[in-house]
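Students often ask why we bother predicting the structure of a whole assembly rather than each chain alone. The short answer is interfaces. A chain on its own may look different once its partners are present, and contacts between molecules only exist in the joint model. In this exercise we take three input lines together and write out one structure for the complete complex. Read the inputs first and try to guess which parts will touch.
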Amino acid sequence: MRTTLDATPARGSLLSDPRARAWLFQIIAVAAVVGIGWYLFHNTQTNLANRGITSGFGFLDNAAGFGISQHLIDYSESDSYGRVFWIGLLNTLLVSVLGIVLATILGFILGVARLSSNWLIRQLATIYIETFRNIPPLLQIFFFYFAVLAPLPGPRDSLSLADMFFVNNRGLQMPAPLAAPGMWPFLVAIAVAVLAVVIFAVWAKGLRHATGKRLPVFWVSLAILLVVPGLTVMIVGAPFDWEIPELRRFNIRGGWVVIPELVSIVLALSIYTAAFIGETVRAGIQSVSHGQTEAASSLGLSGGQTLRLVIIPQALRVIIPPLTSQYLNLAKNSSLAAAIGYPDMVSLFAGTVLNQTGQAIETMAITMSVYLAISISISLLMNWYNKRIALIER
Amino acid sequence: MTAHTFKPDLPAPTTSIGALGWIRANLLSSWFNAALTLLGLYLLWLIVPPLLQWAIFQADWTGTTRQDCTREGACWVFIQSRFAQFMYGFYPPELRWRVDLAAVLAIAGAAPLFIKAMPHKVRYGIGYLLVYPLVAYWLLHGGFLGLETVPSTRWGGLMLTIVIAAVGIAGALPLGIMLALGRRSDMPAIRVICVTFIEFWRGVPLITVLFMSSVMLPLFLPVEMNLDKLLRAMVMVVFFEAAYVAEVVRGGLQAIPKGQYEAAAAMGLGYWRSMVLVILPQALKLVIPGLVNTFIALFKDTSLVIIIGLFDFLNSIKRATTDPAWLGMSTEGYVFAALVYWIFCFGMSRYSMHLERKLDTGHKH
Amino acid sequence: MKIKSTLAVLSAAVALGVGANAHAGATLDAVKNNGFVQCGISDGLPGFSYADAKGQYKGIDVDICRAVAAALFGDASKVKYSPLTAKERFTALQSGEVDMLSRNTTWTSSRDAAMGLNFTGVTYYDGQGFLVNKELGVKSAKELDGATVCIQAGTTTELNLSDYFRANGMNYTPITYDTSDESAKSLESGRCDVLTSDQSQLYAQRIKLANPEQYIVLPEVISKEPLGPAVRQGDEEWFDIVRWTLFAMLNAEELGINSSNVEEMAKTTKNPDVARLLGAEGEYGKDLNLPKDWAVQIIKQVGNYGEVFARNVGADSDLKIERGLNALWKDGGLQYAPPVR
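Now the answer. The structure tokens for the assembled complex follow.
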């Protein structure tokens, strides 16, 4: 049976056939991308060769030879640039993780406060959000670093708590645990206690589902967690010796120190990001229809239970996708640490290492790949979580 | 039998109407709420009085040097004495009227667009968008038609911030829309290219690409090619923000029911015409809040050009705080900067709310 | 239509790519084409390179750039400046973002060889020192065990500091900033006890502090820091021009030529050394691809080495740095230039 469609390609030219046109267009686009890529690559090759610039990744094995103010893993000046890379990466991750945790807690509080029945709390939350989300994060970092933390007293006039914790313009110093004979038994005891709690919780849940009987899971768990390690300490002795910070000629030495660069960047980023998370949480909670609350209260759930068991689980579905992009933004904004001398990936690796070796292309490529990898991991993680909690529809 | 007469209604109890009632319902409805109210009041008491003391009552407002700042509070003299630099950077003082004129023209030119009765609004708007950038370039940069050249290295202050933001918005919107369309294209190659582009730019920090554009780019180009540093920074900002715009627009495109696409096709509209006439107007209207949020983010991101040594608003303030004659003015400087950024960003967000309400034709389910 | 324009863009890109083969003399050609020297300088260091209140750049490093422009174009103002942080400088020079780097940069073997740079000479013989607050009561760098030290990222200083403390068995905490402004600010706020840098920079940093008298420079000099201009490898002609610009300024001082008497001497001199330098005799400018009066222009518009030193960092400036190692060889210093002949 002939249809009218067959009669359409009147001009018969290849260009008027949509499929051929699509192919042609794609080939051209790919060719253009490849062409531009090749062009840039070729120029770079020529320029590097003409200017006698070393290339390749051999530099990662060379000794770094400079000091770093904060390293989470052991480091000395004779270590390699490769190790400096890991230190930078860990410092970046530290800022991101601390920032994400703080921003999430603060953000959820703000989101709930925005919907509070208390007028004053509602207004305060609104003012907070409107203030902090409209000020550039870099400015907030500068503000905390130069205007808030820098005027703190010097080491000799530190504010101290029980002569163990010190606050001054060099940061927050606190006692550091050193391994003592009792450490391993203590750690084992904690592990055993955690295991016991998990087993108990699972059993209690099974019991509840089977018989409807409720056990005081929280209190029992708490007791296990306190008693088991506590008894161990009593039997084998203290797990740690504490290294107490003390004032030396220039600085308070010993113990752990949280440097002000870290404090400023974590504070600024979490305060900034919390404003956005607060709005996201509010929108999420508002998206749950009021009928759900009414249904919950007609089932006899209390206000807290309604929020915890009915509203939040449903709101999370709306909250997760924008929350993910806030986490991504925070991780990327952690690169602003470079502006105040915190040794993160950008300032340490794409800064100092780049300069000492002069291998800009390699160090920048590594740095950008790391950020891409962080972004992609956060996306994947949150997508997985999102899928897990997604509504299973009929 | 007497007829039953209703007695007049008693007034509502004094505890549930008027100020007292309002306070009871909104501040003291439960013990928990009352505690929260107290906490809130305590916070206010902790923050507001010292802030007002510092910023207004104890502040120094007049004078010319640091020595004029004798009181406890803020020293606004610092801001006054450096105001011109914060606004124009190193733009030659005798030519600053050109910046002012460009700003006035921008506002005057855009004003008719906000008059409801204005005829041919769309045509005027497009004309404005085509003509104004040329005029602005002529005024700010000069070098032809009788105006002296002011190279971009002398631009700075708030003016530079606004220029970068304006170029960023004007460039990121069309590019972002193209990328969003490309991401939803039927052609796999186009899709892959667009997705890669978007995900790359969303994944890397802006300061790393700014660094690359400012000191590494010539390595990738032939020796003869010479591009202005500011221009390169602006291109990077456009690419970066376009990726975010693309994601926002994609959300809008996804929200348009399939029937609209099919209806447009049934009318015999080709791809471009159905997009421009049917799909995009609806999709863009849906995503106005998202777009404005992206633009606010862009405005804030312009502060990162400090990393590559451009003298934008924040950098000129930061530089001024290191002047030996004005040391210790960090707080004043940063508070002033925060206020200016806040006014711009808050203004934009309010405008977007207004726009959303105005364009709401009730078709959003 | 769409397809055609895409094709056009593509073919243009390919054509440009083929044409991108660089050749010797590329930098010099590019500079001549542009009509100005793109010069990488510091982001703010009094005496070396800094912007005054009107945004005009001044300092020794800036004067070297101006001298090159004077030699090449006969006009010292044909320079465009790119203020660079320590961290950006080599990348900017390598990539071609700047034509020359005159940014108190230490000449080291790895920079000369592996980074593809060529140092053209030494404008300032320097060494690393320490700036401390008097309150600490420190008299010598050997007493700095346990101190917190502010440094600028991406400098030889960072490496020397670690060498010095290791060699003396001392501990320290480094705080690394991108710009010298931030280090100075942190010394002032007490974030660090010591600021370390080249000695000349310490003097320059000190006058930026609110109470300069409150800070002292310790006597120890812990390293050799020959500071000089650098260019990219691959253009020997350009390298020669930058190198001989500095030599001309040194030779002029040695021969007693300065900005006020240079024109006079160019006409009347009997001294063959002076005549050769100022182009009255021979074609020495032409060998360098420069005009005949190149040295006259340098000295007239910028001055000889002694004048530049005195004006920016020496007796006539706020810094008041002694000539010391930077005196001419005949006055007991290290500054010595090969002859023009």
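Check your guess against this: Chain A touches chain C through 53 residues (CB under 8 Å).
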